[in-house]
Amino acid sequence: MQRPTAVYVWDPFVRIFHWSLVTCVLLNQFVLEEGETAHEWTGYVAAALVVARLLWGLVGTRHARFADWWPTPTRVRRHVHALLRGQPDDHPGHNPLGAIAMLVLMGLVLALAFTGWLQGTDAFFGEEWVEELHEGLANTLLVVAGLHAAAALVMGRLQRVGLIRAMITGVKVYR
């Protein structure tokens, strides 16, 4: 069966969410000073974006909904086996491993917002373990985001589809 040459996948909300979250993470990691108001509010914006995306996962367009891409054990197993056999395993939306990465990334952003908020409370202000946890979560987020980006590039090559371009235009174009 021949696959279509172009498929509309990512709606504007998903694309705006994705690039806004990327911007928040990059700003907080590389531009804004830790503990400063701009850093804190950028973290809260990132958390709000994740909450909005979670809600969109319930009511959004087809490929934005959890039901379309939730990484069940069966879906993950089938996808990994297909990859190991070198067979195409096309998914219009997230493939199961990409879905796991997405969920981990969103969980890390929420955990970062929570630990950042804790540092501003009377009970946890100046607590070294909270600061270290926050920093460890930030470093983990960067590693997972880097793996996610690298996987998008590799899978795009393997599947002959521009995954990065699709996150900009909303359309997966197969070559």
TrEMBL record:
The chain crosses the membrane at residues 12-32, 38-56, 97-117, 137-158. This is Putative Ni/Fe-hydrogenase B-type cytochrome subunit. Pfam families: Ni_hydr_CYTB (PF01292). SUPFAM superfamilies: Transmembrane di-heme cytochromes (SSF81342). InterPro entries: Cyt_b561_bac/Ni-Hgenase, Di-haem_cyt_TM, Hydrogenase_cytochrome. Residues 9-170 form the Cytochrome b561 bacterial/Ni-hydrogenase domain. It is a multi-pass membrane protein. It comes from the Bacteria. Gene3D superfamilies: Transmembrane di-heme cytochromes, Chain C (1.20.950.20). One of its GO terms (molecular function) is heme binding. Keywords: Cell membrane, Membrane, Transmembrane, Transmembrane helix. It comes from Tepidimonas taiwanensis. GO terms for biological process: respiratory electron transport chain. GO terms for cellular component: plasma membrane. The gene is hupC. It is found in: Cell membrane. Its main location: membrane.
